[in-house]
Structures are given as C-alpha cells and as structure tokens.
C-alpha cells in the first residue's frame, strides 16, 4: 500500500508526457504511456465547489461509504481485513456492462489512506491476493496496478 501511495505521488510530481484526451467545463482527462505495464495511465482532474472534507467523504474507500451511491461503476465495496486505521484489504465489485457483454468484475486491493500537512488527502491501492477472498463465481477477477485519488485543497 505504501509503495502504491509513493507511485501515485511520483505520477503527480512528474508533469511530463501527459496528453489531454477529453475535457468538459468541469473535468479534464489526460493519459500517458505506463512505464510499469503495456498500456496507458489515465488521470482526471476537476475543481469541485465543496470543502475538501465533503469531497473526501464522497470518495474515501470505506465500507458503507458514499462511493457506491454515486458511482455507477462501483456496485459494492467491502473491507476484507482492516490492517490499521489507514490500511485495509478491500474487495470492490463492478456491474456488468454493454448489455452484459462485459462480465461483472471484482478487485481485491490493499488500500492506504493518508493526509498530508498541506491538507491533501490520498487513497492509494494496488492488487493483492488474500486468503479470505478467493475468486468468486460469476465475477472476473481484475488486477489493479497502483491507482487512487487525491483530494487537494485549493485557495477559495
């Protein structure tokens, strides 16, 4: 989990190579080739008219959190094992897509939540196997490379 958090911090600090691919008045999505796998990294950025604490309540990875209520791509989120107050092993499921052409997925990740001195909040995760969470029938087991969310306060 700590390695995933550090990888996300490195992505954030390195502005090189990001190319814009979609943009609305509220969100900008960029991509760049990954150095870790054969594919691309993606990031979405936007400024929300809310306090960082209210935004964090919507995105933080906790059981019973708000993410399953607003994110149609997250069907369920459960904590398999709480390792500490800030680190846990979690299972996230996603619904089928494209008229069930794409099967439901499940992801088992080790997740860390951090808050930095400047008020930035981070959730970072990466794939892990856990004996209490073997692959479930009717789900395709997904694999996450280091991924996560930053909630960064901005003046005003």
UniProtKB/TrEMBL annotation:
Q: Which UniProt keywords apply?
A: Lipid transport, Lipid-binding, Transport
Q: Name one GO molecular function term.
A: cholesterol binding
Give the superkingdom in one word: Eukaryota
Q: Does the keyword S-adenosyl-L-methionine apply?
A: no
User: Gene3D superfamilies in the record, alphabetically?
Assistant: 3.30.530.20
* Record carries keyword Transport: yes
Q: Where does the record place the START domain?
A: 1-156
GO BP: any one term: cholesterol import
Protein function = May be involved in the intracellular transport of sterols or other lipids. May bind cholesterol or other sterols.
Q: This chain belongs to which protein, by name?
A: STAR5 protein
> What is the scientific name of the source organism?
Chloropsis hardwickii
Q: What is the lineage of its organism?
A: Eukaryota, Metazoa, Chordata, Craniata, Vertebrata
